[in-house]
Amino acid sequence: RYPTAGPSSGAEAQPLYTNYPHGICVAHNGNLTNTDALETLVRDKYMRHINTDSDSELLLNIFAEEMAQQAKLGEDKDDKDKVFSSISNVLQNCEGGYAGMYLVNGIGIVGFRDPHGIRPIVLGSRPSPTQPGKTDYVMASESVAIDTLGFSLTRDIRPGEAVFLDMRSGEISTHQCLPEATLSPCIFEYVYFARPDSIMDGVSVYETRLKMGEKLAQKIMRKIPDHDIDVVIPIPDTSRTSGLQVAYAIGRPFREGFIKNRYIARTFIMPGQKARKKSVRLKLNTIKSEFAGRNVLLVDDSIVRGTTAREIVQMARDAGAKNVYFCSAAPPIRYPNIYGIDIPTRHELVAYQREEADVAKHIGCEWMVYQDLPDLEESVKSLEDPSKATFKSFDCSCFSGTYVTGETIDNDYFKRLHDKRNDAAKQERQLSQSGGSGSGSGSPTAVEAMPPGSSEGCEGMVNNQ
Ligand code: PIN
């Protein structure tokens, strides 16, 4: 798991382990938002020692403590009931977006998903190759892992639900540990994070990206009906799918103009604008003949800090493009993400206090078009199986500033997030390998009162998968 809040020290590498009771491990994806309150609970009430700044350790101890209490109740209670009660305790106490698994030594494995289903987790199965008549199970963040291992996707784990695999009996059981849970998954999984071959909450990620392209094309046609686009060029890799559909829908050729150097590491790992900027040129090269003398429409999945976008527009010009237009399959990102995707603090976002035309000016293109948020939501919602109709809403917080767990997210929270996430802080942490993870309490969800921060920009993001 990449750290989105704390440092990346070896002690925080998953799975995290506690030896009391039973011996319990945790692996999780996402981010807890009330870590201060949880730290107090674990230290002062549970009297448990905390060794790291990782929220995974809190998740581990909250479950472990409840398992210890359940163990005291004696043998007459089923293992699965003890496990499910302990998961209920986790879900009631932990706020944020998270999904994961605990392995309880001698008892089994339990997978769980946060009460809003912000982060994904799926269950798969296959006939056991070693025990005829029995079934093997697997749980993972994305269905692609299930395919790859030769299992079949069974279903998504529901928000607030736990799935327990009993290692003694080999039985599987499920329980809705928080009955009032509702599904509001992170829409960014569909925009960028999930692999296109994943099926997430019953919807093909690939198909949602085609829809995003279709809706984006419609907006381009509405806004600039007399456009003079000669060719549509995606910025690899994620935007290929939506770019393909943009080209098809506006009736212009789709061409590969940027080729990725497959030996270069992802740029988000590099702190600081200079390193990232340089790495864009190392990472991508142009096929000059696709640009020369043409009006090109570049398509990207999203624009975060705009550093890559700006560099890429310049690369298109250097390759001989006559005019460069830009479109984004996602709406303007104006707010930080607090559920496990490292979208930085507000002032580092290119769309912070900028409208479309200002962003176009900043990245250096002739004009640009962003997807509208209702269209993005519709791109996913329209593909939902109507017989299931499970989406209540989506977590679109980085576009809208509305956080589904909003009641505990206040300005104090965002200030601390800023202190951890800005470039300068990240660089300092990289040197010292120390830091922390934060939270807040209070009421409003507004993030207007962000403190001024680092002037450095960067590109890219990462989530906790
Ligand atoms: C590209 C994913 N995508 C590319 C991530 C960069 C924004 N950036 C978000 C665009 S891939 S910036 O799938 O990893 O190939 O323009 O905001 O700097």
Q: How does the helix and strand content classify structurally?
A: alpha+beta
Average pLDDT score? 87
Beginning-to-end CA distance, first to last residue:
6 Å
Identify every distinct bound molecule in the structure, by name, code or SMILES. piperazine-N,N'-BIS(2-ethanesulfonic acid)
Separate helix tally:
14
Q: Give helix % range.
A: 25-40%
Shape summary: globular
What does it look like?
- Helix content is 33%, strand content 18%.
- The strands form 5 sheets. A 6-stranded antiparallel beta sheet has the order 1-2-3-4-8-9, covered by helices on one side. The chain has a 4-stranded parallel beta sheet with strand order 12-15-16-17, with helices on both faces. It has a 3-stranded antiparallel beta sheet with strand order 6-5-7.
- The relative contact order is 0.13.
- Mean pLDDT is 87; it is low at 434-462.
- It has 14 helices and 17 strands.
- Helix 6 (205-223) crosses helix 7 and helix 6 (205-223) packs antiparallel against helix 11.
- By secondary structure, it is an alpha+beta fold.
- It is globular, with a radius of gyration of 23 Å.
- Bound molecules: piperazine-N,N'-BIS(2-ethanesulfonic acid) (PIN).
- Piperazine-N,N'-BIS(2-ethanesulfonic acid) (PIN) binds next to helix 9.
